[in-house]
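Try this one yourself first.
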């Protein structure tokens, strides 16, 4: 149950896996699900350089809340929360077919670094 998982993460915060929620009048306008990724300095080639990265796994804003800076506020709050536990850089993934994603992330200083491929087993 995704809702129960998210509810537990909000009510029982985990410093290395924060979930942030924006509400207005008791209605959720948006959320950000994050995690810390620690990359060792072991000489292997990895997606992230050595150190601590704050990764925004998912950021979502309801259609009614778009254009009211909810997404930007979530990313800023997530960045502050992740920096507080030692993140020195941020990463985020998005669905390329989402027409609002590219301008949103670029507008916050994010630049594309790699392509993530997915497949089906079987």
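Now uncover the answer:
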């Amino acid at each position: 149950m995704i809702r129960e998982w998210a509810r537990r993460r909000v009510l029982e915060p985990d410093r290395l896996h924060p979930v942030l929620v924006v509400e207005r009048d008791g209605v959720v306008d948006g959320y950000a699900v994050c995690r810390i990724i620690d990359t060792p300095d072991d000489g292997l080639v990895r997606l992230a350089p050595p150190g601590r990265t704050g990764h925004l796994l998912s950021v979502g804003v309801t259609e009614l809340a778009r254009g009211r800076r909810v997404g930007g506020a979530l990313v800023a709050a997530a960045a502050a929360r992740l920096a507080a536990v030692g993140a020195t850089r941020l990463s985020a993934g998005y669905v390329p077919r989402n027409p609002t994603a590219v301008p949103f992330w670029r507008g916050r200083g994010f630049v594309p670094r790699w392509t993530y491929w997915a497949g089906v087993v079987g």
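Discussion: The chain has a mean pLDDT of 86. The longest helix spans residues 70-84.
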